[in-house]
Amino acid sequence: MASGGGAAARMDPELATELVRKGSTLLLLDVPQRTLFGIDTQVGPVLPALFVRASNNLTGFRLSLPPVLLQIFSVGPKFKGMKMVPPGPHFVYYCSSSRSGNEFAPTVGFFLTTQQSEVIVRKWDAQEERLIKLSEEEEIRYSEAVKRFEFDDQLGPYNLESYGDWKQLSNYLSQSAIERLEPIGGEITIAWESSWMDKAPQSDMERRLMEQLRESKFAKNVPVQSERRGCYYTSIPASVKHKNVSGGDLTALNLDKTSLLESVLDKHYQGQEDLLLGELQFTFIAFMMGQSLEAFMQWKALVSLLLSCSEAPLHTRTNMFVKFLRTFYYQLKHGFQRTQDSRSEDAGNSLFLDEAWFSRDIFLYRLSKDFFTVVFEASVVDGDLLSWARKLKTLLETTFGWDLEDNAVNLIDEDDEFAPVVVEMDGS
Question: Model's pTM, two decimal places?
Answer without folding.
Answer: 0.81
